[in-house]
Amino acid sequence: MPRPRRDSEILPARERMENAFWELLADREYHKITVTDVVHEAGVNRNSFYYHYSGLPELADSAIMHVVHEARPMLPEPGSDPDATWRETMTTLLRSPEHRERLDRLALIAGPHGSPELVDSLRDFGRLTIINGLQLPDRLDLKTDLMLDFTIGGMLAVISRWPQLRDTVTVNDLLNEDVAMLAMSMVLSLSRKDLLEYWHRIFRNNLPSDDVAAAPAPQL
């Protein structure tokens, strides 16, 4: 008999099943999770499960897609300060319990309970989220495509290390100038914004004041 759930009278069945998926993945390897496990954990019947999903892989895809969508980073608005956007995003990321829970869930995908199929799903949804967020064209040029792969690979690496980082990393670590410059330059490069102007401003702001007037623009 399924255990009583506090969300059973509040959340829709679909959301309860996705929550059940994450709870089960935290407890056991993906290939050991069954539809029976999900319906028992979620407090629904099998008819409800198959009304929403064709099988466990579709449930996994849906659960990953929703977490990736909710965890998507804030992107700079036209004319805004990319550094301020990075600061606000990182502060929210580490201080919001909801965002930390999303990172905990995504880390399960890259952890010992995950699978290559789940990692591929996370990679695909992460890639799609960035493409949509930056309004990139359907057909990417080679430079943008490679930069996107590089960005997604870095995100997956950080997610896989999140269990070790979650209790030690601080907001100040992520506001480190080198980290912020790298992250924002990738975003600006992908979005085809004026990367030269951004680097020129960073370059000038980090020079000693006596040298600023004489500093040439960086050659990119």
From TrEMBL:
Q: Which UniProt keywords apply?
A: DNA-binding
Q: Which InterPro entries match?
A: Homeodomain-like_sf (IPR009057), HTH_TetR (IPR001647)
Where in this chain does the record put each HTH tetR-type domain? 11-71
Give any GO molecular function from the UniProt entry. Answer: DNA binding
Under the heading Gene3D superfamilies, the entry gives: Tetracycline Repressor, domain 2 (1.10.357.10)
Keyword DNA-binding part of the UniProt annotation:
yes
Positions of the DNA-binding region: 34-53
UniProt protein name: AcrR family transcriptional regulator
Biological source species = Bifidobacterium biavatii DSM 23969
Taxonomic lineage is: Bacteria, Bacillati, Actinomycetota, Actinomycetes, Bifidobacteriales
